[in-house]
Specification:
3 domains, Rossmann fold, 466 residues, globular, 7-stranded mixed sheet, 7-stranded parallel sheet
Length: 466
């Protein structure tokens, strides 16, 4: 199969080449999940290999190694693999490597790359395994690719912040790709009230996983997950993101008891069996696959049309990676259903919100999950919208007081995505100056309202000039 690129993918390749021509060693390309990052770096690898350059593609999970290899095979790109239990073919110009295996072989490996592609590059900092590999090849050019160039600890990925990358290339947004038909539109259902996490501690920047698992692994919550799957997307391929391995197993068992074909996967499972379960979901032999982290990143199963969120997280990146698993289009797929039982959309905003990425990093503010715009749900009509003194749909004025959120049974309510966007745009359009936008940015809780305001104002002035 000949490797062909969409217009925006070809533009990304040109931007990468321009970055190297301008003297950059390590640009970072960010593109939403489903936008075709693997296609882009496969094309770059093919072109570089054809010119006699050696290309090393770094991945961190066996599923990603297998998936990347299949993509290169589809496009006729000859390659070798460096992974546990595999013998490296030194004659190939392109190699895919498990970063964990490669770092143990660096001292005796004679094959040296000219270009290193770092998949899921938000993991790559100087002190990580990725950093060890990159520092071992200081003369090689580097290309990072990720959908979420932001770390939970707030550490910047750019060289000025102590990171690796020296230039950020930003592709189209989720909203733009959705409008163009390259991603499926998301339909979000959220709870009327979130699970009470007030007693959950924070460790390493996210909710303590053992405490979250205990809070979420309850028959009432799991029963709601099964009931609402049956109500909103019964029989459709779905991935349930759980808080622990045991939680994933219990959720799978509940779906099985309800008559659905379900299975759970985890990192300790035999890799072949794990791959078989993933293939079964993609082939329609399973209705629901439950997991703790294994399929949060990189796993490409376009037919999957529902995400069941059962793990609350303070990580914007993890949230976007999870919902991104179901945004890929497929034949007959009209929309992606997100059943958010833990209120992650309240913490991080809607999947197709525009987000401002930076290599500089950010200050991690106590008690704040992310810098994304939050959403709020009206207690009268259950409409979910951007923060405002009154509901933009029914006009209900919110009392100025704190409200204790308790775990309750009930229906998930659909998030009116179109109205959410319209309300935010109306609010933004009322700003008559940069200062007004700065104040709006502060009210929305942006980490850098001044930079956001300048960006919006410049875009507005550019449209008027055109």
């Amino acid at each position: 199969m000949k490797l062909t690129l969409r217009d925006y993918q070809a533009a990304a390749v040109r931007d990468v080449r321009s970055a190297y021509a301008d003297g950059c060693r390590a640009p970072l390309l960010t593109l939403p999940t489903g936008g075709g990052k693997t296609v882009i770096f496969s094309y770059i690898a093919e072109r570089a290999g054809a010119k006699g350059n050696r290309v090393l593609i770094l991945v961190h999970r066996r599923e990603l190694l297998r998936q990347t290899s299949c993509t290169l095979d589809d496009f006729g790109v000859a390659h070798g693999m460096i992974a546990a239990g595999m013998t490296m073919d030194h004659h190939q110009q392109v190699q895919i490597a498990s970063v964990q295996t490669l770092v143990r072989r660096l001292a005796r490996l004679r094959w040296a790359p000219d270009l290193i592609v770092v998949d899921e590059a938000h993991h790559a900092t100087g002190k990580t395994t990725w950093g060890q590999v990159l520092s071992h090849y200081p003369e090689a050019k580097v290309l990072g690719v990720t959908a979420t160039p932001q770390r939970l600890d707030g550490q910047g990925l750019g060289v000025e912040a102590g990171g690796i990358f020296d230039h950020l290339i930003t592709g189209p947004t989720v909203a733009q790709l959705t409008a163009a038909g390259h991603l499926s539109p998301a339909v979000v259902f959220a709870p009327r009230a979130m699970v009470d996490l007030s007693g959950i501690h924070t460790r390493a920047g996210d909710y303590a996983q053992n405490e979250v698992a205990e809070a979420m692994d309850k028959p009432t919550i799991t029963g709601d997950a099964v009931a609402h799957y049956r109500q909103h997307c019964s029989g459709e391929p779905a991935i349930a993101f759980c808080a622990s391995v045991a939680h994933a197993e219990h959720v799978a068992a509940s779906f099985q008891a309800a008559g659905f074909r379900a299975a759970s996967i985890d990192g300790g499972m035999d890799s072949d069996l794990r791959a078989q379960h993933i293939d079964d979901l993609g082939a329609g032999r399973l209705h629901v696959l439950t997991s703790c982290e294994i399929v949060s990143e990189g796993t490409d199963i376009p037919i999957v049309s529902a995400a069941i969120l059962l793990r609350p997280t303070q990580s914007l990146g993890l949230y976007l990676q999870q919902v991104g698993r179901v945004l890929r289009p497929a034949q007959g797929k009209r929309r992606a259903v997100i059943l958010d039982h833990v209120g992650n959309c309240y913490r991080h905003g809607l999947p197709d919100d525009d987000r401002e990425w930076s290599l500089e990093g950010r200050e991690k503010r106590p008690g704040t999950a992310s810098d994304a715009m939050p959403v709020r749900q009206c207690g009268e009509c259950y409409h979910v919208h951007r923060p405002a003194p009154a509901c933009p749909r029914c006009g209900y004025v919110y009392p100025v007081q704190s409200r204790k959120v308790e775990e309750v049974d009930g229906e998930l309510e659909q998030v009116d995505v179109a109205e959410v966007r319209r309300a935010a745009k109306r609010e933004q359009a009322r700003a008559k100056s940069v200062d007004d936008l700065v104040e709006l940015g502060r009210a929305r809780g942006y980490s850098n309202p001044h930079a956001w305001a300048r960006f919006v104002w410049q875009a507005r002035m550019g449209r008027r000039a055109a």
